[in-house]
Design goal:
By secondary structure, this protein is an all-alpha fold. It has 2 domains: 85 residues, no CATH class; 56 residues, no CATH class. The chain is 65% helix and 0% strand. It has 5 helices and no strands.
């Protein structure tokens, strides 16, 4: 009688890289979409891409069986990295454009001696931002009526400014 063949040593599949790529890719994309944590999301996107490539390599050598998870992790990581780069470029431009205005506001507020002067600083900053962005001030007049505003007095009577700002003239 023949002896049975010894059992073949079977290695367990090594699916960890693909699963980790998918999980980290989802976390990275979520962090990027929160906008405040987009740099962390971008870094995690790079990690997800690397783990996705490792997972794809393991499936090519038949050491893992979760190619779909590895590819999904790679794509999610790439998307997170791309969105993080776009957000970095968009936010850097607006912050650097406002740096001079913010420094001017800080200087004005520091040297103002009264609350009326501080209000004037805030009003001039709001006008400057409204005219450079082309939009109206938050809670104030639109940019075309901003010239009529001063820190101490309400706008002069003008039907255009009253309609655009939502303010009504008091009967006198």
């Amino acid at each position: 009688m023949r002896e049975p063949a010894p059992p073949m040593l079977r290695l367990a599949p090594r699916n960890g890289a693909g699963v980790a790529a998918l999980a980290i890719g989802l976390v990275a994309l979520t962090l990027v979409l929160t906008v405040m944590l987009f740099p962390v999301g971008g870094l995690l996107g790079v990690v997800a891409m690397l783990l996705g490539m490792v997972g794809i390599g393991r499936t090519a050598r038949w050491r893992a069986f979760n190619r779909g998870q590895a590819v999904a992790g790679l794509l999610l990581g790439a998307l997170a990295l791309l969105l993080s780069g776009v957000l970095a470029l968009r936010l850097d431009g607006s912050v650097s454009q406002r740096a001079g205005d913010l420094a001017r506001l800080d200087r004005c507020l520091f040297t103002s001696g009264s609350s009326r002067a501080a209000a004037g600083c805030a009003a001039s900053f709001a006008r400057r931002v409204a005219t450079t962005t082309g939009s109206g001030e938050a809670g104030g007049p639109s940019s075309r009526c901003a010239r009529r505003w001063s820190a101490t007095a309400p706008p002069r009577s003008s039907s255009r400014c009253e309609r655009s700002s939502g303010r009504r003239e008091r009967p006198g």
